[in-house]
Amino acid sequence: MKITHFVVIFTILLGMSGLSGCVQVAAWERGNLAKPQMALEPNPLQSAIQAHVYGSREAAASINSSGGGGGCGCF
Asked: Which Pfam families does the UniProt record give (predicted)?
């Protein structure tokens, strides 16, 4: 009985603490969140180039590509 009571109270407290993280961002704090280093992908152009190079190399090996192989697959 005590263990079940403890689990119920713990679950309620855990849920309440999770709800406290849902807050509105104030207008003066939005500038900090909009900084480039806060982005999920800080440099999208570099990531696109790396994805293109990776895709080209894998297409040459004909592993992850629907197209035919060709080329040496060198970096």
From this structure: DUF4266
